[in-house]
Specification:
Largest sheet: 7 strands, mixed
Strand order of the largest sheet: 1-7-6-5-4-2-3
Distance between the termini: 67 Å
CATH superfamily of one domain: Type I PLP-dependent aspartate aminotransferase-like (Major domain)
Order of helices and strands: HHHHHEHHEHEHEHEEEHHEEHEEH
GO biological process, one term: carboxylic acid metabolic process
Cofactor: pyridoxal 5'-phosphate
Helix content: 40-55%
Strand content: 5-15%
Keywords: Aminotransferase, Decarboxylase, Lyase, Pyridoxal phosphate, Transferase
Pfam family, one: Pyridoxal_deC
CATH class of one domain: Alpha Beta
Family: Belongs to the group II decarboxylase family.
Number of strands: 11
Radius of gyration: 23 Å
Number of helices: 14
Length: about 475
Amino acid sequence: MVEKPDWDAPLAEAYDRALGYLTALPDRPVGSTATRADLLAALGGPLPEGPRDAREVVADLAVAAEPGLVNTPSGRFFGFVVGGAHPAALAADWLAATWDQNACLAALSPAASAVEEVAGEWLVRLFGLPAQTSVGFVTGGQMANFTALAAARHEVLRRAGWDVEADGLAGAPRLRVLAGRHRHSTIDRALRFLGLGRNAIIPIDTDDQGRMLPGALAEALAGGDGPAIVCAQAGGVNTGAFDPLEDVCAVAHEAGAWVHVDGAFGLWAAVTPRLRHLTAGFEQADSWATDAHKWLNVPYDSGLVFCAHPEAHRAAMGVRAGYLIHGADGERDAIDYTPDFSRRARGFAVYAALRSLGRGGVADLVERCCTLAGRFAERLAAHDGVEVLNDVSLNQVLVRFLSADGDHDGHTRAVVERVQRDGTCWMSGTTWEGRAAMRISVSNWTTDQDDVDRSVEAILRCAG
């Protein structure tokens, strides 16, 4: 007879450890404090020969792993573009793990299907996208771009008389992809996955902030023929800059091209009246990608793909098989909108975050982060030897540290390393137009003015 499971002890241990971790976050060093050797020693050893008590396993895991965590939920984590986890979203994610639903089919989880349908409709309205827009809940910006570009590949080749799902790419009309010189690397990677290859990209010139030049796009489109996809950007990963989306859409559609907008975090500017002008015209595009684990602050992983042409979306992603139980009329099968077959029910956390924050709360979160990014730039730029490289229009700040010996790149990289070791805050490094820089990304719902001021003091101290 199978022993009745003891849920109480391991879950209580996990709850206590989780609450202790979150409560102590403001006082924890933001970076990891353990070496690889430390972690392997603590976590390693031979696989046990027999079962062990579940509560002890959870406790041992927490003790061993916590020194190796980069405390990304901290209000002073400014690396990459990583949000925290809103309490409602985190709690819903715990429930999602407990319910353990496979969200690919409505038959497997009517609740997961319904919550994605509702949250998807909320998001379409929140962003101001066309009413018929379809939505897919994916892992992140990479798979959101992949999914959107798969739909784009289907549609532009269909218009050219080619069925890529049936016949593949061999013999198909050559497809051109036009994207800004400062596009995100997930665009290139998605094209590799789709069999189009990096060489399908025609790079378009940009201005000094990384914004695509519509004139250069028009010239490139006119310089070739055949099916084309234009990849625009809402919020560059370094400067936060937006392509002139209205002009890009007009130029691209005039040439018969599909327009995809990569807005991993910048798309959220559309939810706030103060920043919506940055996204002007973006609703005229054909597809969009963004992340909920960035500015909506839901736990990893959570990406979103939107498509103004649901039939192309389903044609690229959908699958039919005799052993599958497909939804009846009106029921949503997530498998028709994402690359995944089996997948976790990440829609519950998105739903909870949206319902908890509401339209006003999401707008306030985005605006507050942008205001704090401006404070970073203003306070750092006031000091000699510190140069802010970008126009801070969103939540990204590029900072360069000048050295008396002229090795500004080396000095900047050294400052980034010192800041990461210091533990007060955590920023990542980057290269912008051939120059080393510190990249500060403000996207956590808990970050406040004190976090910024403490971080500025630490940065200046590490800059010497």
